Amino acid sequence: MSDIVNYELRGPVAVLSMNKGPVNGLGAALRTAIADAVDRANADPAVQAIVLTGTPRAFSAGADITEFGTPNASREPNLRVVIDQIEGGAKPVVAAIAGQCLGGGLELALGCHFRVALPDAQLGFPEVKIGLLPGGGGTQRMPRLIGLEPAVNMVTLGNPAPAKSFAGTPLIDRVADGDVVAAAVAFAQELIAAKTPPRRTRALSVSHPQGESFLQFARNSVAQQAKGQIAPMKALEAVAASLTKSFDEGMRVEREGFMSLMASPESRALRHIFKAEHAASKIADLPAGTPLREIRKVGVIGAGTMGGGITMNFLNAGIPVVLLEMKQEALDKGLATIRRNYENSMKKGKLKPEQVEQRMGLITGTLSYADLSDVDLVIEAVFENMDVKKTVFETLDKTCKAGAILASNTSYLNLDRIASFTKRPTDVIGLHFFSPANVMRLLEIVRGAQTAPDVLATCMALAKKIKKIAVVSGVCDGFIGNRMLARYGAAAGALINAGALPQQIDGALQKFGMAMGPYRMGDLAGLDIGYATRKRKAAEAGVPLRPSVADKLAEAGRLGQKTGAGWYRYEAGNRDPIPDPATEALIAEFRSAQGITPRAISDEEVVERCIFALVNEGARILEEGIAARASDLDVVYLNGYGFPRLRGGPMLYADMVGLPNVVRSLRRFAAEPGADPAWQPAPLLVRLAEAGKSFD
Ligand code: NAD
């Protein structure tokens, strides 16, 4: 007998306990072990009823997603077979549910004849979140247990709910406090005493007083919420079949929907993201069990756009912050912005008044470095200027206690140089937040040449605590995200020079799915930022600044939303970009000064050039070892730059287009007269394409 399903007799009740991995993922080994244990209990004359249970952490969190696409995924017995075996058995089976009971795990529980659960056990069908639908009978059994409407919500939204919210429905026969297995055994004893036969969910029927009109309403609202995703619609149609078709026919509809989704690019992308976000937290050369430094108090330098948002992350996690500014006025302004943000959340009902006060109570504003002497971590978010950073880090080195982690939020500057301003470069790290820092989920963790392993491990753990998705980057200009962004911006800029307008480029990329095109984004961030970066880079490289429309706009004082005009113009109090003839005139003037005759540019060309520019730079970043894996670049782009989730990130997109096709296009761009040398395909990209391999 397998040790991943324990078999124990409690009087006439066989207790089968699944214990595989952290959450009982239903891989081939566990499915086989369940089937064997159920066979044994059904064949054992001493057994009159069966309890199937998991661990306190999880009954089962569902399919083992690491098996998807491998032979194990389809290895028999498949999940539907195991569920049918349980449901078809002659002895009553009671599921005893604690912790997570999700996806295939919930379907397994629905195959049991009765269910006993702890009140806070989490029940749900998260499949739509990875572009799938429940494929183990969930769409047919759930409406039979809780009714059509709640089942539609559960399957199409994918949000879990506590078991206690289903008390009184045949989904949860008994809510138990304390020992759920003991409660399920007692329930089974009652079934035996009353000679209650198995209650098979498949034999129940679904009814709804206005079934068809409800479904029509649901189709409209799901289509609206799904925003172009197909999985929620297919999931809805599968549940709809439970109303009008027999159980077996409904199962066929579910099966067809599942198979077509499994083969869809949408599900491939969403499954890729799911795995990529898990993988990003793994650092190959960081020994397991690296000790962590304790972070009880944090310092933040600079109460501007970023410093304020960064501070809020820690207050939200209950960690006190000392916020340091140069002048009282700047400090007061920063503190007032934080308070206003919290008060806005309060007005929306997301925070209670006492929570606002509790969070504000965790901040100490100061103008004195002496107040940073006892912080465990300090994050610098002052002006993006090496001389300013130098002064700050030299002062931190003198004032912070031994063992304090010294972090910079710099967007582009060389972290190793920043570390060299201190006598403790091993304690220095980059913590690159994204704006607005209290909202955006991405955190690029920049590992310097000398950053100590425990400093890195501590920051990874801290990222989780403040609910960020962390990706590790090596040191280079702009790290992963902004380095790729620079190439994307350059590709878009070349298109403007050649004949496109900002509104066309933004429109084409937004149609592709980007949350915001590069010119709307530029106006939001401020055109002075890119201008300063380009000037710095040209100076560092000792070359003259390449003339560009972007610089002409900045020089004309058109800095974006904050000045009422940039690439677009803005009306007072309104952030909607309005195409501006003045920009068009400036572009036309620029072209004629450069001797460029504008040509027509299609939306397809815009997408091809801008996205392939990201891919090509991404390949260079990988080759240089700045990022550990291609999927890390996808995680950065999805969570920090508004890349469409349904496309899985730029590197997966390149895989889907086919790397040889990407290389062919890049070669074509590189061969154009006067082409930017950056269009030369990255050697890694060429090698993968020639070997028939992909990034994934
Ligand atoms: P900001 O101008 O809004 O804020 C900077 C703040 O630092 C100001 O309030 C200023 O008074 C204060 N400051 C300057 N020198 C100081 C010193 N010596 N001591 C104490 N305070 C000082 O700038 P920001 O947009 O918040 O950017 C800060 C840093 O974050 C920069 O390195 C920037 O590259 C980086 N960053 C910015 C963004 C963004 O989108 N704005 C995103 C990621 C990272």
Characterize the structure shown:
InterPro entries: 3-OHacyl-CoA_DH_NAD-bd, 3HC_DH_C, 6-PGluconate_DH-like_C_sf, ClpP/crotonase-like_dom_sf, Enoyl-CoA_hyd/isom_CS, Enoyl-CoA_hydra/iso, NAD(P)-bd_dom_sf. Pfam families: 3HCDH (PF00725), 3HCDH_N (PF02737), ECH_1 (PF00378). The protein is an alpha/beta fold. The protein folds into three domains: 5-262, 2-enoyl-CoA Hydratase, Chain A, domain 1, CATH 3.90.226.10; 298-473, Rossmann fold, CATH 3.40.50; 481-548 and 582-690, Orthogonal Bundle (N-(1-d-carboxylethyl)-l-norvaline Dehydrogenase, domain 2), CATH 1.10.1040. Helices cover 48% and strands 11% of the residues. It is built from 27 helices and 20 strands. The radius of gyration is 29 Å and the shape is globular. The two termini are 38 Å apart. The mean pLDDT is 96. Bound molecules: nicotinamide-adenine-dinucleotide (NAD). Nicotinamide-adenine-dinucleotide binds next to helix 11, helix 14 and strand 16.
CATH class of the largest domain: Alpha Beta
Rg over CA atoms, rounded to whole Å, is 29 Å
Q: Strand order, main sheet: write it out.
A: 13-12-11-14-15-16-17-18
**CATH level 4 superfamily of the largest domain:** 2-enoyl-CoA Hydratase, Chain A, domain 1
Query: Considering DSSP H and I runs of 4 or more, what fraction of the residues is helical?
Result: 40-55%
Number of domains: 3
**Shape-level CATH architecture of the largest domain:** Alpha-Beta Complex
CATH fold-level name of the largest domain: 2-enoyl-CoA Hydratase, Chain A, domain 1
Q: How much of the residues is beta strand, in percent? A: 5-15%
Number of helices: 27
Mean pLDDT: 96
Report how far apart the termini are.
38 Å
Small-molecule binders here are: nicotinamide-adenine-dinucleotide
